């Protein structure tokens, strides 16, 4: 017997329809490439998203055709989120921090038909347009008068004139909720990048679960700042969850430095912000230098790489901002776990609460997890046993676009490539990426643990731990460190700082001071590059 409830597919268009009807006056504020602040409402987003849909119809784009974006976080990008997917096309967010050749490769692999870009990225478009034969239309996300006359890009038009010609009346089509809605290429550890292809259903379910109180807890009373880029896993789904809850959206555009982010938080009364640790590191540096305070920020979700304990403490103790440590990946839309406390933790001491907060958190509803040993046997949830972390759920990948790399699943589970523990309360803690774990004398050393100790030293701006070949121990850890400006930390001082904070054999063998640690397109430390930088390095005594 089937249930007798109405059968409405879960479609992205319903989000913007809802936001327009119920939160029409809700604000969307964007720092533009031009530098000024742009301000309008969900009603305007909806109207202009319909114009985008009409513009794509006018180009005779078919169902599931790809529309690429090379853009910062901003209102026009948001309109494309809804206009492209809502009309049945696939939004393909490109990462502008990749090398132009790699971007061209990805555009060709995705067979993008239209490419919309912010003017900051004109040089990239100039470099690649002749090598992207599938792209028939280039659209610059700007006013008509900002379009360069001599761009050399055939048929280039401005976004504003492109949509101005279109009606704002549009009936969103109804189709199978399993249809593809957007795609995002993951850098991949080996070979070419591969794409995760999200569906309307997976996106809506992810947005719903992401908005729950023990996940990101979003509501119509929030002012939300996604610093995490819209080109990286749909800004962790925040644009969708915001439309679903009517939260105010604040976009930083290209200005991601500490000062700009701080000013935007204060100016727009941001209550909730999301980003990777490197962004917050810059902002906290700016705040401590200027002795600044927050007046509205209540919580911040930090993920993408492990959040150093010192950062959780700084936000919590110095600024009264709750840190939600979160974990996920491109293949998971991306949310997997968020660290919020349970009732039983509330009476605990600050130190004991901190031990919980440092973990990546509990699986949110919809995400099932397990850890396994090298033979694939389940490991206990005791907070001690660590092994490969596998996940499954309705917003987790089952295959990459075009079947690249074959089936990634093992008995229906997706292997994340992370190594983790899970405790009896279900809190997962990443000990490492499986490729970054340091194998020393048959034991594993977590590079994250080594980095966290260094990051807690007041003179350390950034730290990255890698394993170096060792004839006796197989590998030994060293830590590459960027000093804070104006400090004079020595190797010996930092090594002494490890004493008592970690087991003796887990203390790194050496400290290497560097000017910068190579960061990837999404703010993660690129350890492969660091290893290359240090290829002539020799461990002390060898
Ligand atoms: P991406 O697909 O580029 O978002 O990368 C996903 C990977 O980032 C995960 O598999 C983890 O290795 C890492 N990651 C994400 N969030 C965290 C976190 N909170 N702590 C540690 N690693 C993380």
Structural descriptors:
binds adenosine monophosphate; alpha/beta; 13-stranded mixed sheet; single chain; GMP Synthetase, Chain A, domain 3; 28% helix; 16 helices; 542 residues; 7-stranded mixed sheet
Distinct compounds present = adenosine monophosphate
Contiguous runs where pLDDT drops below 50 for at least 5 residues: none
Within the largest sheet, what's the order of strands? 2-1-11-10-12-13-14-15-16-20-19-18-17
CATH homology superfamily name of the domain at 440-533: ANL, C-terminal domain
Report the CATH C-level class of the domain at 440-533: Alpha Beta
* Biggest sheet statistics: 13 strands, mixed
Count of extended strands = 25
Radius of gyration: 24 Å
**Count of DSSP H/I helices:** 16
CATH architecture of the domain at 440-533: 2-Layer Sandwich
CATH topology of the domain at 440-533: GMP Synthetase, Chain A, domain 3
Give helix % range. Answer: 25-40%
Structural class: alpha/beta
Give the integer mean of the pLDDT values. Answer: 94
Percent of residues in β-strands: 15-25%
